[in-house]
Prior knowledge:
Layout: H1 2-43, H2 47-72, H3 84-103, H4 110-131, H5 141-154, H6 156-161, H7 164-178, H8 186-190, H9 192-196, H10 200-206, H11 220-233, H12 252-259, H13 261-282
Amino acid sequence: MIKILYSNKKNKRKDGRTMEDKNRTENTEKAEEIKSTASIQNRKRIVLLDTLRGLLLIPVILFHLLYDLHFMFGAEIKIMNGRGIYVFRDCFVSLLILLSGICCNLSRSNIKRGIKTLGCALIISLVTGIIIPEEFVFFGILHFFGTAMILCGLTWREIKKVPPTAGCIAMILLFLLTYGIYDVNLSSVLGTGIYEGMDKYVLFILGFNTRCYSADYYPLMPWIFMFFTGVFAGRGIKERKLPELFYRNFCPVITWIGRNTLWIYMLHQPVLYAVLTIVFRFF
Length: 283
């Protein structure tokens, strides 16, 4: 009888230990699963794209600093009178536009992003129009980005039907064909009667020279084709089949700049203008 009782107690202890071990194993598996899920979620952000965006934005801000010094504050900066500095600017902006197109493949809603960006662009137009009308921004880089994102969102179903390589080749050819469109004399091409009946502001946004003015000017042509080159080039990124280095944060400061490009771009000019005003007034 004593033996039976002792055996039952022993079995209960064993069962208790077995249950404890089982629970411990299940908890460990759950913890590993949660950790794995968190790791996958972190990997969803391709950090290298943020870092590249931050790197490309810095030279653009530097160009604006030189522009403000030379044209708005009268400092003599010889390179601002040559063509080279503008080619330099366009190279970096081209890469920013290409990168923005690539990132459209990772967005949940390009239309919402476009509306937000376009809203910020309209604020810039309003502020420059009121405070410094001689530097009024009618259709600048943010106007372009907002419009391009909305167009991408509206045509996304059609974009997915086009093979990425064919899309890239077509967009690059269209970019090269329309690169000099600003210098085309529409009046002589279409005839004075037709030209005079067309909306000058719409033509200006499209990329034609209608003698309108914008201190910062990035029309739809040719830049929209550079943007859509990025859209097609980035199609493979959606699948996340990328090397590990794409998910590493090599420079947190520059990556932070890249993640906050919109707000930094919006605020950098007012900050530069305020700082330069103080420097030139008091020093």
